[in-house]
Amino acid sequence: MMYLCPCHFGLEAVLKRELAGLGLTVTRVEDGRVFFEGEPLAAARANVFLRTAERVQLVMGEFDATTFDELFEGVKALAWDEILPVDANFFVSKAYSVKSKLFSPSDIQRITGKAVVEAMKRKHRLTIFPKSGASFPIRIAIIKDRVTVSIDTSGESLHKRGYRRMRSAAPISETLAAAIIMLTPWREDRILVDPFCGCGTIPIEAAMIGRNIAPGVSRSFAGESYPFITASMWANAREEAKSLAVPDRKMSIEGYDIDSEIVAAARQNAAAAGVLDTIHFQARDMRALSSSHQYGFIITNPPYGERLSPTTAGSDIKGTKSAAKTVMSDADIKELPALYKDMGEVFGKLKNWSYFFVTSYDKAQESFGRKADKNRKIYNGMIKTYLYEYYGPKPPKRDKA
């Protein structure tokens, strides 16, 4: 079977590495999408293990369409009867179009739904379907007149791990936080500090990575009710994940925020994720940051002009989802140069440390006072941000004895 996973723009390479690490064969990489192939068990494992994907979708087929007649016939020709049982509650949950002649999402959804009904009628010789069984959300994307039709096996987006019960006004998504950590050289035996931790997402994701806790091991998925992905496959995927976890691994992870109520929320979220014992949270201004460690990492998401609200994380294609944003006041924006200048001075005192921060503030490097060793463009929903990477020296190798 062929599958696709949408992800944040700019993070395709991280997701590709994750899939390869699971032993799955990546067949194609596009902007915001990675395709792979595998048996039905692969869908269960991908849902349970992937940290940077937004969804796992079973690809029903791909074809070109520039008219609604072509769209209808293309969808109708797909092998729906091989996947959907007669009582399936199938519906088109998402449709989007980019640079294509067919551009109305509502019309694309309507035509696709009618085509699936006609395909099922042809097989089962029914005029009315009960739709009393499992739900099968169908997703359709048209990019440059190329249509991809898929069935969502995840249900709720994979960034919803289940631990974030308390949140700040504009938190970074779990998938983006995990990807940023995975883009750095940080490992579980090194100290990690987030001086703008908010509701704790970056420290929590780091702790889960360090302890090898699979992000989907404790949540449910739409595909658990699909007949072609059996209950034993889901059980096997979860048992594999549990067997690989190292829940008692000790790490040094610290999260700070100036808001004591947000820090309390971060503690609750970390407790829900099962990693509170390895994260030190404290209400502290970034300007008071210091450490006795000679080497370490700062990975953070500092304030910037506008940030996504939680409901906009995980858009499939840049520019196809209206962005609900948390916009800073003019007074707050005026303070950004001073804030980033202070960041540069405070971080610079940690001489041998490496630091990484993601922001859309276009004068970040100028205010910070130092050009990044590397920067990487990442779309956080519809907002173009950059991950600025500053590398300190590598610590001397430890005596293995």
The strands making up the biggest β-sheet line up spatially as 2-3-1-4-7-6-5
Binned strand content:
15-25%
CATH superfamily of the largest domain: Vaccinia Virus protein VP39
Count the E strands. Answer: 16
Instruction: Give the low-pLDDT segments.
Output: 307-326
First-residue to last-residue Cα separation:
48 Å
pLDDT average, as an integer? 91
Architecture of the largest domain, according to CATH? 3-Layer(aba) Sandwich
Number of helices: 11
Brief descriptors of the model:
single chain; 401 residues; alpha/beta; 2 domains; 7-stranded mixed sheet; 16 strands; 30% helix; 23% strand
Description:
- This protein folds into 2 domains: 2-152, VC0802-like (2-Layer Sandwich); 174-212 and 230-390, Rossmann fold.
- The protein has 11 helices and 16 strands.
- It has helices at residues 12-21, 40-49, 68-76, 105-124, 174-182, 201-210, 231-244, 260-273, 330-334, 336-348, 364-368, and strands at residues 2-6, 25-30, 33-37, 57-64, 89-98, 135-143, 146-152, 192-194, 253-257, 279-283, 297-300, 306-308, 325-327, 354-359, 374-380, 383-390.
- The strands form 3 sheets. A 7-stranded mixed sheet has the order 2-3-1-4-7-6-5. It has a 7-stranded mixed sheet with strand order 10-9-8-11-14-16-15, covered by helices on one side. Strands 12-13 form a two-stranded antiparallel ribbon.
- Strand 2 (25-30) and strand 3 form a beta hairpin.
